[in-house]
Amino acid sequence: MALDELKIGGMGASRRRVEDNRFIRGKGRYVDDVVLPGMLHMEILRSPVAHARIKSIDTSAAWEVPGVRLVLTGETMAARNLAWMPTLSYDTQAVLATDKVRFQGQEVAAVIADDPYVAKDACSKIVVEYEQLPVIVNPIQAQDPASPLIRDDKANQTSNKVFDWEIGDQAATDAAFAQADVISEVDLHYPRSHPSPLEPCGSIADYDRSTGKLTVYMTTQAPHIVRAAVAMVAELPEQMIRIISPDLGGGFGNKVPIYPGYVISILASILTERPVKWIEDRTGNLISTGFGRDVYLKGQLALRKDGRILGMRMHTVSDHGAFYADAQPTKFKIGLMHSTFACYDIPAAHLVSEGWYTNKAPGGVAYRCSFRVTEAMFFQERMIQNAAYDLGMDQAEFRRINLVKDDMFPYRTAFGFLTDSGQYQKCLDLGLEAIGYSTFKQEQEEARKRGKLLGIGISTMTEPLGAGNSREYDIIGIKMFDSAELRVHMTGKAILRTGAKTQGQGHETTWAQIVAHELGIPAEDITVEEGDTDTAPFGMGTYASRSTPVAGAAVAMVSRKIRAKARKIAAHLLEVSEEDIEWELGRFYVRGNNERGVTIQDCALAAYSNVPDGLEPGLENNAYYDPPNLTWPFAAYICKVEVDPETGVWDVLKFVAVDDCGVRINPMIVEGQIMGGLTEAYAMASMQYITFDEEGNCIGANFMDYLLPTAWETPGYELYEVVTPCPHHPIGAKGIGECATVGGPAAFVNAVVDALQHTGVRNIDMPMMPNRVYQALTTGKNVSGMPPVLAG
Amino acid sequence: MYPSRFAYDAPKSLAEAIAILDRNGGEAKVLAGGQSLVPMLKLRFAAPERIVDINALPGLDYHRLDPDGTLRIGALCRHEDLEYSTILPGAFPTLAEAAALIADPIIRTRGTFVGSVCHADPQGDWAATMIALGGRIVAMGPKGRREIEMRDFVLGPFTNALAYNEIAVEAVIPAARGTARGGYLKLERRVGDFATASVAVALDMSGDTVTRAGAAMAGVGGRTIDANEAMSVLVGKTLTEESIAAAAKAVAAAADPRTDHRGDLEYKRHIVSTFVTRILTKIASTEQKAA
User: Fold this and answer.
1) Active site includes A369?
2) How far are the Cα atoms of A70, A278, B127 from residue A213, in angstroms, in the given order?
């Protein structure tokens, strides 16, 4: 008898997360929980100013503090050729500043001491003399030819421009605009945000001179990339480098880059021959590590009166901070911005992007998204909504006309992506029904009579998740595939390792479910391990919703390899030829005689005790998976809000999320991902941004200024599901971890703008704080563009 | 959290606590709920040589009414005690409404009313209610006990009138003469955020006539704004659309907001006016229902 898949925790089981057993008991083992004998502690001194020449650094008083073992400056780093390091976008970034500081919070010196209190005390004794320079806090200032050159360290850099990039067919797009009945325009800013994992970054470097081995415990989402980078930058042999990424308290893209603190702690351990722990504080995390977004958009749609979109133009201007340190595939300069409008059937499109250096923290990480896809989909959905208004057409109907239809797959987008599956219309209709769209206009009218403003915002999008394939996607030259290794022990239990790295996604639970699905080994019999480069197979890590599309596929493929070998063993045990063996979940049996069979556990035992001649003993294997395409989940998010016109305060009355991420491995975890993502979307829409004053002081350097929503104000969500299996993924799954963060913000903004649209308002930049909504409402004008210049 | 080094005492009696403060000549700091002091230690904005933890002092965790209705709140009474108080609703509506809006539920379990008032944060909620209600602080020092009127207690941002060797042991809030009416409204971006603007209103009413009118504001000035004088336009009046509008205008004029990332000063003034109007209109409708 085949096993009941749900009972063994296979595909589709809402199995409780096994990792939570330790997390909810406070038994997680994060980097800061690791204590090594003789360990020293490191503190980083950061620049208080945003742009200044360093005239001198006097560390003598710091050296005199009892308990201080080492003080490092840019000069010490430079002596070992480590003052600068490469970024993930082929730029360079200062490890410790030598010539200038280029943003507030930049690393200037480091103290290594017996305890963290002493290290911090001694940091305050370092005297740095700064000669302040003019500060650039946005790309508009950076564009001014008279602006000071931030990157005067680069030989051929003559302006503050980072890059120019374009894609699409300009001539065809111009032709489409020439034929348009209506041209709809949007001008907006997606403000700078920060992933803010609850655990900030940190490392413990442990260099053992006697063996030559360097072990680094590190908060990283991609340990193998770090190992390769350390091997190249520090010129250490790769087999002597072991990166261990233990439990991570969230990542959201923030823990993809390699930060100066990691590099400094490694050098400090080499110099002191003792383990050196560096744990960033909250402010350090917020002001110096990878941010998200900070992109300006001018967008235009060419429209025909009947509602068809003829063409699309986008011009983005992005702020990259002082170093171009975006984490993204090599081929692209502004990530996958050109995945915008992928769910709409648009004949012609043209995207022009320019990037600028400013005196702000570097990063541009994919904050819970697939490389700038959040911006791409936000811009898309803001443009779509305003186009409907400009046409005088119902916003749902306008989407319906332009969405790619089910029979059009595979569909090649104007920018060249190939979307392969989906039921867009069905998802939209399901959402509209759930929100009560058919009676909304009436409801809205009645509310207006009572002085209340209601609005509905829709956001529909498909996004590219799961980089590779390796033809198009690599990071610093390393191709984007992933891996899994499965060892089945003789008692039928197993250990699975992958090249991904869980940071809250629940891999320890879901990977076991895939193995259970493929082999019939109960999920509870499978241990999942990730994050140790000495034991895990090579992989590109976890970000961009790539774990299930890539590593998850590798888990299915390695399980199938194991099953193929087990089949040979089964044939041997059943004394029939392999061709006469049938498989059902958990067991092989003789064709035509279901009673006569052996379980996968029987095969496992035999693999170590009764191996047929000519077959290698053991039952283990690995698989490297290079996906043929990205996966394309679809979402329809619909939000209903009520705006208080006297204060500008807005409340979510209802939020409906319809997600099609293909086959769901663990529905509970999928729903958790969606709710978490929507909450991050709500945060960005309502309260969250990192801004800077004219002097480059970061406003948002702690959780009093950079706000995370609590359960108190977070709205409830109604979730719905549509399943269109991914045609190329071995188990039909698509990425889901980031859909809600990507598609969510536009639903909130569209809803508030919809409530105000009768006044002529077409845009309110995020975060839509009550004062901005009130300003829009009382002036009837957009609140767009530049972040406000702050008075104090 | 790696604060600067400090010595730590947890005295068992008030006399001992005062003696420690006295001996340390201004270098010691009192720790009660710690919800403001600890973050300041963490950020090293505060670096006292000695912390005097008063949590072990007996008999300070009360809030109670005197026979004449005067409310007394001890130095270790937590926000949460007031949130769930059965004493406040009815007799002290301004405090009852504010109690549910103090910071967030986690902070409310630890933070203290008196500590919040002593912290004198221009955005502190309780200081505003104390001013609107005409409360006072009881201080104990080496020379004994003294009472400080709330309007004299907050000297400026984060500065109070306590001497270095004094501990605020109690807040005293007089009972209303007649019927107590009032309310507290706060605009914040998120629970626990500092107020963009908040307004405390406290009225004593005799029938439908206002006999005493108090108001104060947080978040709209460099210190807690005392708007009692502005609010006095209501004294002797009934709550009508006209009198409410006059009060709202007067209180808004007393605000001294600055433009920042929470909003510009006109917006904040507008919020003050809206909140005063909302609180008074609600009181007026309650009065109507009662009549």
Assistant:
1) yes
2) 21, 19, 59
**Which of B161, B153, B116, B120 is closest to B136 using CA atoms?**
B153
Query: Average pLDDT for residues A460-474, to the nearest whole number?
Result: 88
CB–CB of A135/A356 below 8 Å?
no
Q: Is A380 a catalytic residue?
A: no
Q: Is B270 on the interface with A (CB under 8 A)?
A: yes
The reply to whether A34-133+200-248+255-288 shares the fold of A20-27+482-625 is no
* Segment 84-143 of chain B within 8 Å of chain A by CB: 104-105
Question: Largest alpha-carbon pair distance within chain B?
Answer: 62
Q: Locate CATH 3.30.43.10 in chain B.
A: 7-53
Fold type of domain B7-53: 3.30.43
CB contact under 8 A, A770 and B263: yes
The β-bridge partners of A188 are A297
- Reply yes or no on whether the pLDDT at A3 is more than 70: yes
Nearest-CB residue to A707 (from B4, B189, B263): B189
Which of the residues A227, A368, A664, A762 is marked catalytic? Answer: A368
- Taking only the tens place, the pLDDT of each residue in B35-59 is 999 999 999 999 999 999 999 999 9
Closest CB to B5: pick one of A117, A648, A788. A117
Question: Domain residues of chain A, as ranges?
Answer: 20-27+482-625, 34-133+200-248+255-288, 374-466+629-791
CATH topology of domain B179-290: Enolase-like; domain 1 (3.30.390)
pLDDT exceeds cutoff 50 at A792: no
What integer pLDDT is reported at residue A786 of this predicted model?
58
Q: Do A710 and B264 touch (CB under 8 A)?
A: no
The ranges of chain B annotated as CATH 3.30.390.50 are 179-290
Q: Let me know if domain A374-466+629-791 sits in CATH 3.60.15.10.
A: no
Architecture (CATH level 2) of domain B63-173? 2-Layer Sandwich (3.30)
- At the fourth CATH level, the homologous superfamily of domain A34-133+200-248+255-288 is Aldehyde oxidase/xanthine dehydrogenase, a/b hammerhead (3.90.1170.50)
How large is the average pLDDT for residues A215-238?
92
Query: Tell me: the pLDDT tens digits for B65-91?
Result: 999 999 999 999 999 999 999 999 999
Q: What is the CATH number of domain A20-27+482-625?
A: 3.30.365.10
A230-244, A290-304, A627-641, B168-182: which has the minimum mean pLDDT? Answer: A230-244
The DSSP secondary structure of B235-249, one letter per residue, reads: TT-B--HHHHHHHHH
pLDDT, tens digit, 9 for 90 and up, residues A647-694: 999 999 999 999 999 999 999 999 999 999 999 999 999 999 999 999
Could you give the CA distance from residue A549 to residue A529 in angstroms, rounded to a whole number? 18
Q: Which of A117, A644, A710, A771 is most worth mutating to test chain B (most B CB atoms within 10 A of its CB)?
A: A771
pTM: 0.96
A313 is catalytic: no
Q: How many CB atoms lie within 10 A of CB A467?
A: 29
Residues across chain A: 792
Amino acid at A84: W
Per-residue pLDDT tens over the stretch A744-780: 999 999 999 999 999 999 999 999 999 999 999 999 9
Enter the ipTM: 0.95
User: Are the Cβ atoms of A687 and B190 closer than 8 angstroms?
Assistant: yes
Is it the case that residue A789 has pLDDT exceeding 70?
A: no
DSSP A620: E
B residues 25..44 contacting A (CB < 8 A):
39, 43
Peptide bond into A468 cis (omega under 30): yes
* Gap from B23 CA to chain A (nearest CA, Å): 26
Q: Does A645 touch chain B (CB under 8 A)?
A: no
Cα–Cα dist B14/B23, whole Å: 14
| Contacts A792 to B, Cβ<8 Å | 258, 260
- Where helices occur in A112-259 by DSSP H, the ranges are 116-123, 139-143, 170-178, 223-233
Q: Is the peptide bond before A410 cis (omega within 30 degrees of 0)?
A: yes
- A442 a catalytic residue: no
